[in-house]
Design brief:
Strand 3, helix 4 and strand 4 form a beta-alpha-beta unit. Helix content is 49%, strand content 16%. Helix 1 packs parallel to helix 6. With 149 residues, it is of the alpha/beta class. The chain has a domain at 3-33 and 74-144: Rossmann fold, CATH 3.40.50.450. InterPro entries: YtoQ_family_protein. Pfam families: Nuc_deoxyri_tr3. This is YtoQ family protein.
Amino acid sequence: MTLQVYLSGEIHTDWREQIVQGAQGLDVAFEAPVTDHAASDDCGVAILGAEDDKFWHDRKGAMVNAIRTRRGIEQADVVVVRFGEKYKQWNAAFDAGMAAALGKSLIILQPAEHDHALKEVDAAALAVARTPEQVVQILRYVMTGKLPG
């Protein structure tokens, strides 16, 4: 059985690459949003035409990006949502809520300093991890039934 995993959340660190690399050898397929920040921000206006108002510029991009995000979350067996240290990721919180509403197995990846702010998000998750390696260990356990050695 191939486990479909959607990697959502912050795009400024290499946490996705760490998870993908660590899961080598497991029957896991990964999907993610577009992580090129400029492309993600500007996809709507680049494809559908310029906007004078930044609100509509951002809205076009959000709507185009939502096509990929919705598909990824809907088809996932497991959704991993990363909340990073530097930026407020409202979109990540939305993705976590969407995954929870769809009954997806949800793993949150966050630093301890976010525990209070994300307590409701964390309560909807099946696991709250601190490191990408812990996410890999969860996936390995789910796929093989083996504990980390």
